[in-house]
What does this fold into?
Amino acid sequence: MMQIADRVQRIAASQSLAMAERAKAMKAAEIDVISMSLGEPDMDTPEHIRRAAQEAIDNGWTHYGPVAGIPNLREAIATAQNALTPNPLTPNPLNFTSDDVVVSVGAKMAIYNAIQTVINTGDEVVIPMPSWVSYTEMVKVAGGEVVAVKTKYENRYCLTPEELRAVLTDKTRMLILCSPNNPTGSVYSYEELKAIVEVLRDYPQVVVLSDEIYNALVYSDEENKNIQNTAYADINIENENIVCSMAFFPKIADRLIIVNGVSKAYAMTGWRIGWLMSKNKAFIEACTRLQGQQVTCATMVAQKAAEAALTGSQECVAQMRQVFAERRELICRLTAEIPGFRFEKPQGAFYLFPDVSALMGKPTSNPSLNGRVLKNADDLAEYILNEAHVAVVSGSAFGCPECIRLSYAISTEEITEAMRRIKRAITKIVNKQK
Ligand code: PLP
It folds into this structure.
């Protein structure tokens, strides 16, 4: 019998992937299922990026490359990050250079490498919940202890300075933040981040891993502008697509790791290019050493495609953002009609994360639950899959069993139909109790 190592046995399988697999299996059995379970843009990678990859193959970008990534790509990454600024009058104070960047096989691997590089056995890692599924599992692999902090609906599930201070100890080594957030779609404001930085000043041993993979997908409508205007009041800025980055806080520069990638912004999930950035030279050197013994470097052809994405016209990003913005309007309007679904309009990414706790205790008649009452969001996701034939992910996958996650990275027709079906299924259980 082959032994499976303890550290791998501890890893949980991804619930969102499992739900997507179930939807696929039902489709294969000719059941008309709409999947709202996956976190990837449904668009194709833009043509000029695909062409750059074809040219890279023909031009011999088929050998091993530098461990940290192709210099031109690293340069383009630093330039793109530096272009984000809290104030057009003051350039990004951190001024990243290509030496501060390590390109990896997707942002996922960048995050994995960062955790492996910083965390020792027993170190505590603070993760605000709900959160993307993989952080927790990656910390476990590294032997770290996850300190899950439950955030509140009233705060758009953003971590408050009080919540953070309450869990910090001398064993805390890392705080993982994700904004725009998966699964909630919330975007931390400048002031919210600033308040967190202020707390961290008392804990100089805490590294901040800031996952900014959705930063191209922030929506600037009137409501958002109000949030942004309040948030940016102290720096007096009017910028439609302003996105807050942890890089705006030089006070923590020596212990800040920023993660980003091309997957979400350029519809390039399958190319597997992401990166981390840090001004801490010892960290970058250690991370590069780790990667050198691991994958050597990310795929060269994909790196050339990513370089084309960052250095070419950004019109494709604006177009995709517009498409998602319209879908967001649609899904918010339709979800507001569903009884028992409570949500605030999200400011970024492509997820809606309604609180469904009002539906708990309601009886169902669908055989999948043997007619019993709904106990949690897992039950509700199961009910929606079997009754409405729509695949959604239970919030328990993200550490929040009162919610479900709906991905709106699908067509407007599919969103309309999916929400019609969900509404019908939910109305059925709500009416049944009367
Ligand atoms: N971080 C978050 C919050 C994500 O949602 C995802 C993908 O779902 C990733 C990181 C990983 O992205 P990549 O495709 O670059 O590995």
Remarks:
- The chain has 14 helices and twelve strands.
- The radius of gyration is 22 Å.
- Residues 63-312 form a domain with the Aspartate Aminotransferase; domain 2 fold (CATH 3.40.640.10).
